[in-house]
């Protein structure tokens, strides 16, 4: 199975790293980074409330099986990286119901090598 790691920032400039293990999604992310895809460029996925090595500094990550890219999404799943971290105990309830997170200001910034991801 192919695995890739990507990072996005939000309006605060903070970086969030996520893992993708779906060939189609990996290709989509690379098209976004190359500038070929200009519409569905924001990141969405289901939050898992546990830290992972490749996403240092945050106590949550995105489930790789749920990663998608979007143009527009409903307001109820929007939140900044830091606000989500600060209110992690409320995630999956009234805040980010169903654990789905779609930060509207997310901007894919780079692909991260597996070596860098596991070294983090």
Automatic annotation (TrEMBL):
Natural source organism: Nocardia aurantiaca
Full protein name: Calmodulin
Residue ranges of every copy of the BP74 N-terminal domain listed in the record: 3-113
Pfam families: BP74_N (PF23621)
